[in-house]
Design a protein that fits this description.
- By secondary structure, the protein is an alpha+beta fold.
- Helix 1 runs antiparallel to helix 4, helix 3 crosses helix 4 and helix 3 crosses helix 5.
- Helices cover about 30% and strands about 25% of the residues.
Length: about 270
């Protein structure tokens, strides 16, 4: 396995060469605190970006075992780290620096849903993250110094800021993990209560727009459950929560125009996440 000095030397040697010279980056590169795997190198700066994989050993990442001791907690922690990467990319990286998609780092697109992902994996062995990177070029000529800035400066800073427990807000991590665990626990109680769905009292169901899954910030009316369908479920972290339980069978939703029928149905459809 080569180290980061070898990567620096290689990038300087291929500076100005044809874009195909980037193929020589494929393989493993050892950095202080993590290992970079260049798994796929794009054919030209206008093609789909290159694929990078970063592995941080568990003793370096430093995440307490309790944060990923169950599947629900692990999925929530991985989701938090994907969001941390996405948040830090525009802060740390320069972005476009040449032709096509040169200089761009990216991770998966995501919304409000907390789902199992391959973009970040957490285990006792450590943290593994997958990133896309547009290797920089002028036309179809390698910009080795710009690639050096991306891989030797920006990437280590991304790892430091987003994938190390000591760099994150521990309370924010804990809240996110517990929220994911609570949501999974609520879904797990539906069958034993004879329910197919649950809507929490006070929930904001309208979305910000037709193309956004974020809640409406102003003018939204918090949900109030009808007493005939009110039920209280338990959360392992936040305690009991009251809301509307929709029973098994056929339930008819009626109301005038713009009274929230479709909004409720959309919320129920997303409830599996």
């Amino acid at each position: 396995m080569h180290d980061q000095r070898g990567l620096t030397s290689l990038l300087r040697r291929i500076d100005g060469a044809g874009y195909g010279a980037y193929k020589r980056l494929r393989g493993a590169w050892r950095f202080p605190g993590f290992t970079l795997y260049v798994e796929h190198v794009q054919g030209d700066p206008f093609a789909a970006p290159s694929r990078l994989r970063v592995q941080v050993p568990g003793e370096v990442a430093g995440f307490p075992r309790d944060l990923f001791r169950t599947r629900a907690r692990r999925v929530a922690l991985e989701d938090f780290l994907v969001r941390a990467l996405a948040r830090e990319i525009p802060k740390v990286t320069k972005g476009k620096r040449g032709s096509g998609r040169s200089g761009e780092f990216s991770t998966v697109d995501f919304g409000q849903c907390v789902l199992p992902r391959t973009a970040v994996r957490v285990s006792e062995e450590g943290v593994e993250a997958i990133l896309s990177a547009g290797l920089p070029a002028a036309g179809r000529r390698v910009l080795g110094r710009e690639a050096e800035a991306m891989l030797l400066s920006e990437l280590p800073e991304l790892v430091r800021r987003a994938l190390l427990y000591k760099s994150l807000d521990p309370q924010a991590v804990k809240r996110h993990v517990e929220c994911g665990e609570d949501a999974e626990a609520l879904r797990g109680q539906l069958a034993e209560h004879g329910l197919v769905a649950f809507v929490a009292e006070g929930a904001v169901l309208p979305r910000a727009s037709g193309v956004s899954d974020r809640p409406l910030r102003q003018g939204a009316v918090p949900f109030t459950p009808p007493e005939s369908l009110a039920v209280t479920l338990e959360r392992p972290n936040a305690g009991p929560i009251r809301g509307m339980g929709i029973p098994e069978g056929v339930t008819l939703i009626v109301g005038g125009g713009y009274h929230g029928k479709s909004t409720l149905l959309s919320a129920l459809a997303q409830g599996v996440y």
